[in-house]
DNA sequence: CCTTGAACTGAATCAGGTTTGGCTGTGGTA
DNA sequence: TACCACAGCCAAACCTGATTCAGTTCAAGG
C-alpha cells in the first residue's frame, strides 16, 4: 500500500511527464478548472496512477510552485553574482526574471494565481512540507530583492526610501508582466525587459 | 420552480447578508477553501436557500468581483473629476484606490486572486452574463488609467513612454499593496498612500 | 378567504478527487 | 534458475461538497 511519493526518480518514472502535462493544463485552463483525471489522460495513464507520484492534485500544484520559486531564486543569485554596481545587479536580475521560455511563463502565472495557497496550513503531511518549502523560497526571493535595494541605498546608487515597500513594489512590477504579456504579441520579450528595467531604475535611482 | 435569481431586492431578502458573509469567508479563508454551506450557516439559513439568490458558489464570487470593480471604477471617475492637472488627477486616483475600509480590502484581494476566472467562458447563462459584466468593468478600469497616462503625456506633465505598459504597471503597483498590507501593521494606510503616490509619480514624471 | 410568489427546506443526486486492494513486470540476488 | 521486493499501474468503491428536486411556509394584495 501507501502513497509514498517517490523521491529518487526511477528510470520508468512518469513524474516529469506528469509535471509537464500539469503545467500546461493548469497554466492554460486554470488549476480548479482542469480535471485531475484529464492530466492522467494526457500522460496516457489511469487517474489513480497519479497518486503514485503525487499525494494529491494540490500536492502537484505545490510542487510546480516550488519548482518555479526555486528557479527564480537561483536565477537571481546567478545573475547578480559578480556585477559591479547595484544598478548593474538590478539590470541583470530583471533580465533573469523576464528572459524565460513559454513553460516558465506558465509556471509563473500558476505561481501567482495560487500564492494564497501558501497562507494556510495543509492537512496532509507531505503537502504541508511542500508548502513550508515554498514559503521559505518566497521569503528567499523577497529577501533577494530587499537585499539588492538595501545594497543600492548603502552604496548611494539608490535613493534612501523604505526598502521594504520598494522591494515589494519592484517584485509586483516585474510579475505583473505575465498578466498581459503573450508570446508573439505586439511587444517582444526584449521590449518588455527594456521598459521594465528602465521603470525600476526610475523608481529607485537616487 | 427555477433558480431564477432575484434582480429587484425584496424587503425580506437576505442577499446582502449573504454577500457580506461570503466576502468575509472568501476573503479570510479563500474561495475554494470555504464551504458554500458554511456561508449559509453564517447567515442562518439552509444551504439550499443560497440558490434562491445565487445560481452557484461561483456566481456569488463573480458578483462580489463585479461589485468591487464597479466600486473602483466609479471611485476613480469621482476622484479624477475636476482636478486641475494630470498630476493632481493621479494623486486623487491613488487616494481613491487605497483609502478604503477593511471590507473593500477583502474584496480587492478576492478580486485579484480570481481574475483568471474571467478568462474562460462559463456554462451557465447567468454566470456568463456576470462574467461578461466583470470583464467589461476590468476594461473600464484599465481604460481609466490608460487615459490618465495619455492625458499626462499629452499635457507634457508625464514623460512620453509606452502608455499601455505604463498604465498596467501602475495598476500592478497599486494593487500589490493588498498582498502585504495589514490593518494595524507597521505602516498606516496614510504611509502607504504617500509612498505609492510618490513612486507612481517618479515612474511617469517627465 | 384565497391566490401568488418570494423565501426557504430536507432529501436526493452528481461530479470529481481520493482510497482500497490487488495485479504486472523488471532488476537484483541467492 | 527461482524468487523477491518494489516501482508502476489499474478498476471499482468511496467521500465530500456543490447542486437539484419536490415540495412547504408565509406575507401581501385582491
From TrEMBL, chains A, B:
SUPFAM superfamilies: Homeodomain-like, Tetracyclin repressor-like, C-terminal domain
Domain of life: Bacteria
Keywords, sorted A to Z: DNA-binding, Transcription, Transcription regulation
Signal peptide: none
One GO MF term: transcription cis-regulatory region binding
InterPro entries in the cross-refs: Homeodomain-like_sf, HTH-type_TetR-like_transc_reg, HTH_TetR, KstR2_TetR_C, Tet_transcr_reg_TetR-rel_C_sf
Sequence ranges assigned to domain HTH tetR-type in this UniProt record: 12-72
DNA-binding region: 35-54
Protein name in the entry: TetR/AcrR family transcriptional regulator
Species annotation: Aeromicrobium endophyticum
